[in-house]
Task: structure prediction
Amino acid sequence: MDAGEAYQMVADWAYIIECITCKGTQWDPVPKSARKPIIRRDHGECCITGLKGSLWDPLVVLPVLPVPTGWIVNPDNGQKDRIAKILTMFFGQKMRDFWLGYAERPGK
Result:
């Protein structure tokens, strides 16, 4: 890998992270009707800490990460293919496909 390719890879990685941390699209609030099924599905545990919810520390159901729509919408000049390649290296193909689908069709 030459210096130009290394620079491009770092720039693409920075863009991937930026799409989640700064430029992500916020979710709509989770409907009340969906909260109990989600808590049941997760066995009453926080998906981040693994701790059980309690009366003093109840579980709050809300999206944790913004939708990284920039992975789908904005890339140009071959960046979309490079992003897909980096995501494959980081997540593996199955999770890459999940995340790209999530970015393209949030909530589906």
Notes: The longest helix spans residues 3-21. The chain has five helices and no strands. The helical segments are 3-21, 32-41, 70-73, 79-91, 93-104.
